[in-house]
């Protein structure tokens, strides 16, 4: 297979052909660290793209792929993977998946895409991008005549990957003019952010945002303060922290990043310092504001969240504000009436269950409703809520929590992990839900709309697809909660003052 940069050789498996670890940009190492991605370096001969390459630098515990096995990590991580039907005719729709992980962890290795390709005749692409301090700190304020720091690096990586797709995907049987981007969690945030990124215009024609966390997109003043605090943390171990940004190892930079995360979470529970920054140029507007003002790219959109998003975090990843004390601190900068209205919309507050529901709705559901409402005014928009849970998920207290919809999207109920979450009586239902979700996602990729029966979301009808067994449709579910959240504008209202080093 010949592409713009050289010849690539993939592998055939069970009716599919895969190419793994193709570079879409030059390794962001050395002088390229903290710089916008540069074009990939071409090669001579045949490049064997048989196996997945490095994950972006991150805590090693997040790269486990087996007992005692870890995916290698390196700054040389800007690669992507392609899966296509072995026999294909005519250009096929392209689906580009952006993995989640709070912009601090994750890898494309986990999301193979084989089930989607088999189910629907598409070309599937998954990408890696820079994470954590190396990808999502805005250090541009520390640029000088001798050093340049670019911002929004992970976002720029995603745009570079889409540019690669536009140039090369036809060689794999894909249609460069029919590209659907989709992602979950931070990957969902990437999707809603790309909708508001001018550089991404024309690089995709449809978008699916699964459990987008719009709060991960950082206001400019926050981004500048995060960068200052990070440099102060480096100063504790390096005489010249600016030089250390280039001389320190990825591990050292990562440990400083963990310190930054701890300091920020002490002030704004659940807030993370890594995410696209609203800089006024590369990302001119917050995606919610862009949707509200009709300045998102007018492409069809599917957006939604899961019924009990926060249960995963309460049980496994303690990063969301799920205690009454943390919930109270979220409203310190708001009108007291707003706090009363929001907490009053949740029966039993301040019970643990109500606190979890508030946290999940604040991070995922309520801002996604705002994006659906704004974007739906100028482009076809479809909203869903994922309610399906197997009995094991219910019995263990997880329910339809964060990321469980990925089991259906990627056909994972039939894998070893997925089958461990299903009892014999659940397997038919799990397969029905998988067929429904994959059918709608694939129909959307082919036709710009899900299958018949799922109406557009508008401010007038607020039609939401409830993905469960069986599937159903509701108009304006959780109406009282939706109205209550309309007076709250996210973490931007929480003051950063109170002991963060570097605070002016």
Describe the structure.
With about 500 residues, the chain is of the alpha/beta class. It has 17 helices and 16 strands. Helix 5 crosses helix 6 and helix 5 (about 220-235) packs across helix 7 (about 250-265). Strands 3-4-8-10-9-11-12-13-14-15-16 form an eleven-stranded mixed β-sheet, sandwiched between helices. Strand 3 (about 10-15) and strand 4 form a beta hairpin. Helix content is about 35%, strand content about 15%. It has two domains: about 1-300, 3-Layer(aba) Sandwich (Rossmann fold); about 305-360 and about 380-495, 3-Layer(aba) Sandwich (Rossmann fold).
Oligomeric composition of the shown chains? single chain
Q: Kindly provide the radius of gyration, computed on alpha-carbon positions and rounded to a whole number of angstroms.
A: 22 Å
Helical proportion?
25-40%
Strands in their spatial order, largest beta sheet: 3-4-8-10-9-11-12-13-14-15-16
Q: Ranges with pLDDT <50 over ≥5 residues?
A: 497-504
Shape: globular
Strand content: 15-25%
CATH superfamily of the largest domain: Alpha/Beta hydrolase fold, catalytic domain
N→C terminal distance: 55 Å
Number of helices: 17
Structural class of the helix and strand makeup?
alpha/beta
Per CATH, what is the topology of the largest domain? Rossmann fold
- Overall strand count: 16
Number of separate structural domains: 2
Major pleated sheet: 11 strands, mixed
């Amino acid at each position: 297979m010949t592409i713009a940069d050289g010849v690539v050789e993939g592998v055939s498996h069970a009716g599919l052909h895969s190419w793994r670890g193709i570079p879409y940009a030059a390794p962001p190492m050395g002088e390229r660290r903290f710089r916008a991605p540069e074009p990939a370096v071409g090669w001579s001969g045949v490049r064997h793209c048989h196996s997945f390459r490095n994950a972006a630098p991150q805590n090693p515990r997040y790269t486990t792929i087996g007992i005692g096995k870890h995916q290698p990590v390196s700054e040389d991580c800007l690669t992507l993977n392609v899966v296509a039907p072995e026999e294909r005719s005519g250009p096929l729709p392209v689906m580009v998946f952006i993995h989640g992980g709070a912009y601090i962890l994750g890898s494309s290795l986990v999301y193979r895409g084989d089930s989607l390709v088999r189910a629907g005749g598409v070309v599937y692409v998954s990408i890696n991008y820079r994470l954590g301090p190396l990808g999502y700190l805005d250090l541009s304020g520390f640029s000088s005549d001798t050093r340049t720091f670019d911002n929004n690096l992970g976002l720029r990586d995603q745009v570079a990957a889409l540019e690669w797709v536009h140039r090369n995907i036809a060689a794999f049987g894909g249609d460069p003019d029919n590209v659907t981007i989709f992602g979950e969690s931070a990957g969902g945030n990437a999707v809603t952010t790309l909708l508001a990124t001018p550089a991404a215009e024309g690089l995709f024609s449809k978008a699916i945002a699964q459990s987008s966390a719009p709060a991960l997109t950082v206001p400019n003043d926050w981004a500048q303060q995060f960068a200052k605090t990070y440099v102060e943390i480096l100063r504790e171990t390096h005489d010249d922290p600016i030089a250390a940004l280039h001389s320190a190892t990825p591990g050292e930079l990562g440990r400083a990043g963990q310190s930054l995360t701890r300091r920020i979470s002490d002030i704004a529970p659940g807030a993370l310092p890594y995410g696209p920054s609203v800089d006024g140029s590369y990302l001119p507007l917050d995606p919610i504001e862009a949707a509200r003002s009709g300045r998102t790219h007018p492409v069809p959109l599917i957006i939604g969240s899961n019924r009990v998003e926060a249960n995963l975090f309460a049980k496994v990843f303690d990063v969301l504000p799920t205690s009454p004390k943390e919930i109270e601190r979220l409203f310190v900068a708001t009108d007291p009436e707003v706090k009363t209205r929001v907490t009053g919309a949740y029966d039993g507050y301040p019970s643990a269950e109500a606190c979890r529901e508030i946290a999940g709705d604040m991070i995922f559901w309520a801002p996604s409703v705002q994006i659906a409402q704004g974007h739906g005014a100028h482009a076809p928009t479809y909203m869903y809520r994922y309610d399906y849970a197997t009995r094991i998920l219910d019995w263990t207290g997880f329910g339809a929590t964060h990321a469980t919809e990925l089991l259906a999207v990627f056909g994972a109920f039939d894998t070893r992990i997925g089958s461990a979450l299903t009892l014999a009586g659940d397997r038919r239902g799990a397969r029905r839900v998988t067929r429904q979700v994959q059918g709608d996602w694939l129909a959307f990729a082919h036709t710009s709309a899900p299958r018949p029966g799922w109406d557009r979301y508008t401010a007038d009808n607020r039609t939401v697809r409830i993905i469960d067994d069986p599937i159903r449709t509701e108009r304006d579910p959780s109406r009282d909660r939706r109205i209550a959240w309309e007076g709250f504008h996210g973490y931007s209202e929480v003051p950063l003052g109170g002991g963060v080093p570097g605070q002016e």
